[in-house]
Design goal:
about 725 residues, alpha+beta, nine-stranded antiparallel beta sheet, four-stranded antiparallel beta sheet, 17 helices, about 30% helix
């Protein structure tokens, strides 16, 4: 029999606001989730390929922030098959689950069926708002066998925030199911007056089809097989072909789609097979999270909780991948420009010129039950937007795109001057306008992530250390863009702002006794004197004076901060340190990539290589070699892997992109578009890589293939192929 639906979900974890806590009633690690995504649709299944809410609250098929299938459960003669194995293909196109029968009692017409005689293989993918499955069944017994295959299903149409643990006093109405000969229609009329539908179609026609199950009574001779096709379509028009045709045509299309996305990027291969496997998974994760929006490709943040547009996440992901695929940065910049705030809206924390934080399409967002329908409550997205635009221009020389973006960039700079700096002291501060918006609006947006040395939470408005660095880089980027556009006076004014901010920042944020930059200034300008990874972002942005870099690097790499797997968000020994927390002692791969890029910028390549090595060693322990959003900050021990975080998103865009950023940091890679050269400044490879090959690396309007070989503490480079008048330059 199918499992009972989950009736309650305990809100135990606290990744963000208490009101938006992601429930941890079951560990995703224990449940071995298998995730799929295509455009606006994603799915979370267990290793059997089942969606079982009673075992893990995040299971199901989701479309535009609504769960369209809450249960999908396979049985053979009324019991669950045994799991042989399951995996998601390296390109993330399909999920394959191999199952077999357990011991089954004798029927009146046949003897007992011993285990491992009936093989079942489930092959599944998502494409354009639908989930497609082919269930292959084969009899390996020496005699004819009769048995029943059951597919049980249900759709609760709950909002994603309900799945995360939010509770609603009222919900809409689920309509009576519509059962046809080979299809079932399920629908829900929400309080937002929208009807959401799920249509399940089966081929061939089931022996019995009801509102919650499809049953096939099969009789298979020795060696005989049987195929069942299922199409589960979310909010779509009725297809013009049956489930069998839809599967076969869709599979061809999704694989072609994944190949096209891979072709956008440079290729990377190495002498280390483990690294190659992990990198293939990382690139595939990025490709599956990228959604083609009208303005271009855009990386959705992560599955399951953040499969939507996030400003900060996409901007940092674009930084991490800029050297490999600059078209992604262009798509991010154009989409965020198209959705930039133009008016004041306290309900959305919006102010003119501010860059988007998050977009949601579910019922709760439409009704205003959560503030995230179109939400601008992040303090760093706006300076990061300008900062990325400057980096994109430096990488590509694409002045026409920057000319198109300039009105949005000018508005963003205006926001930084007028609204971001709340008290006129030159620093950018945040404080929510809406009572149930995010209390903390930097990347560490947990309610308890910004605090003083004694553990007391900081009161706003709060000026974060990393945000001042982003602002500094943004003013410098604006100067470079204005210069390229021919406005030399504006360029000098922006550069002067950057210089003034750098001086003020050093005086207010560097703490000699602490040995690093403070986390933040609170509303009274009192420093939050705690050691955090945020200080590493000051190296990434370049705001740190060179004479401060050595102390900051030493603090980041001290054993209290560096766990062996990576730099912790908060150093051990600080108040509120907890290696199992979301932001107060855990290890975030994207954070480590940013820190490593900052270390490399100031010449600390050996330290950056240690971070690279730690994250690589950690990655081999994760399921499918998939780097998660975060993991626990316990110290690395011999013969033990890292400790997972129970509700981490996987895949997560900025985590998947981290190895690419770490490679760039190791290689000291930048681009001189005017000279049509890829520049390698004091390149090196970590000890686990002897050779590395970059293929199809875009340089100006040409492409180049480069081989890198480790030589002691440095690297030797050679061009093995080129298209166009392009080359490399190696700087000692």
């Amino acid at each position: 029999m199918p499992p009972p639906d989950a009736a309650a979900r305990a809100a135990a974890a606290d990744p963000q606001e208490p009101g938006y806590a992601i429930a941890a009633s079951a560990s995703q690690i224990e449940a071995m989730p298998r995730t799929l995504k295509h455009d606006e649709t994603f799915a979370v299944f267990d290793a059997h390929g089942d969606a079982v809410p009673g075992l893990a609250s995040n299971h199901g098929l989701f479309h535009r922030d609504t769960r369209h299938l809450s249960q999908f459960f396979l049985t053979i003669d009324g019991v669950r098959p045994l799991l042989l194995g399951s995996t998601v293909r390296d390109d993330n196109a399909t999920l394959s689950c191999d199952l077999t029968n357990p011991d089954l009692p004798a029927r009146s017409d046949q003897s007992e069926l011993a285990h491992d005689l009936i093989h079942l293989r489930r092959s599944r993918f998502l494409f354009r708002g639908a989930c497609h499955e082919c269930l292959s069944i084969r009899n390996f017994d020496g005699e004819t066998r009769t048995f029943e295959i059951g597919l049980f299903f249900d759709a609760d149409f709950v909002d994603l925030f309900e799945v995360r643990g939010s509770h609603r006093a009222k919900r809409g109405r689920i309509a009576a199911p519509v059962v046809g000969e080979s299809h079932v229609g399920l629908s829900y009329r929400g309080l937002d007056a929208r009807t959401r539908t799920t249509r399940l179609a089966f081929a061939p026609t089931p022996t019995s089809l009801k509102a919650d199950r499809a049953l096939y009574r099969l009789t298979l001779k020795p060696g005989e097989g049987f195929l069942i096709f299922v199409e589960i379509r979310c909010d779509g028009i009725e297809p013009g072909r049956d489930a069998r045709q839809a599967f076969r045509l869709g599979l061809k299309d999704i694989r072609a789609d994944m190949r096209a996305r891979t072709a956008r990027s440079a290729g990377v291969s190495s002498s280390n097979d483990h690294f190659n496997e992990g990198l293939r998974r990382a690139v595939s994760d990025l490709n599956v999270l990228i959604t083609d929006l009208p303005e271009g490709p855009y990386p959705y943040a992560g599955v399951p909780w953040f499969s939507t547009v996030f400003g900060r996440d996409a901007l940092i992901t674009a930084f991490e991948t800029l050297w490999v695929t600059p078209t992604l940065a262009r798509g991010v910049l154009l989409h965020l420009a198209a959705n930039q705030a133009t008016t004041f809206d306290p309900e959305a924390d919006a102010e003119p010129g501010k860059i988007l934080h998050e977009v949601r399409f579910g019922e709760m967002a439409e009704l205003g039950e959560v503030p995230f329908r179109r939400y601008y409550g992040s303090i760093d997205s706006t300076p990061l937007f300008v900062m990325l635009a400057g980096a994109y221009l430096e990488r590509t020389g694409d002045i026409e795109t920057l000319r198109q973006l300039w009105p949005s960039l000018d508005a963003a700079l205006g926001w930084m001057r007028e609204h971001g700096d709340r008290d006129g002291d030159g620093f950018i501060e945040y404080g929510r306008r809406r009572g149930d918006g995010l209390v903390n609006q930097g990347w560490k947006d947990s309610h308890d992530s910004i605090f003083h040395a004694d553990g007391q939470l900081a009161n706003g408005p709060i000026a974060l250390v990393e945000v001042q660095g982003y602002a500094y880089a943004a003013w410098n980027a604006a100067a470079a863009i204005a210069r390229a556009l021919g406005d030399l006076a504006a360029a000098e004014a922006y550069a002067a702002r950057a210089r003034d901010l750098r001086t003020a920042f050093d005086a207010a944020f560097f703490d000699p006794a602490l040995g690093t930059y403070v986390l933040a200034l609170d509303g009274d300008k009192a420093p939050c004197r705690v050691r955090t990874s945020n200080a590493g972002h000051a190296l990434f942005s370049g705001i740190a004076f060179p004479e401060r870099a050595e102390a900051v690097a030493a603090c980041l790499m001290d054993t209290s901060s560096f766990s062996g797997w990576g730099v912790r968000t908060l150093a051990a020994g600080e108040a509120r340190f907890n290696p199992m927390s979301y932001h107060n002692g855990s290890v975030w791969p994207h954070d480590n990539a940013v820190v490593a890029m900052g270390l490399a910028r100031y010449g600390f390549r050996a330290e950056a290589a240690r971070i690279f090595e730690g994250l690589f060693r950690a990655s081999v322990y994760f399921d499918l070699r998939r780097i998660p959003e975060l993991f626990c900050g316990f110290a690395r021990q011999r013969n033990r892997g890292p400790v997972g975080y129970p509700v981490a998103c996987a895949p997560q865009a900025w985590a998947a992109a981290a190895p690419l950023a770490l490679l760039q940091a190791s290689l000291g890679l930048s681009f001189d578009v005017a000279e049509r050269r890829a520049v390698f400044e004091r390149p090196m490879l970590p000890e686990f890589l002897d050779t590395l090959t970059l293929t199809g690396l875009a340089v100006a309007d040409g492409r180049i293939d480069v081989k890198v070989e480790r030589v002691d503490a440095t690297a030797a480079l050679s061009v093995i192929n080129r298209q166009g008048d392009v080359g490399i330059r190696v700087e000692a």
